Amino acid sequence: MVDQLEGAELIRLRAALLEFLKFRVLAAEETFFEHASAEERRRWLKALFPQALLLSDTVLEQVWNQAYDLYGCH
Asked: For each successive 10 residues of the chain (74 residues), what is the average pLDDT?
């Protein structure tokens, strides 16, 4: 999938997704990052944050890794 957004729109959506993930990680703690595959993440996001599906798998992976680095239990 190719990003359907660019520039400021892409940055805003990435930031919104990261903020969304912060609260999900805090609520779920250690179990949050068990959604390992891109397919699992997309199914989960479709139900809870569907606008994130405009991002490519690569960008979603980058945001997911950033959320793990910032909020994960390590």
From this structure: 69 94 83 80 93 92 91 73
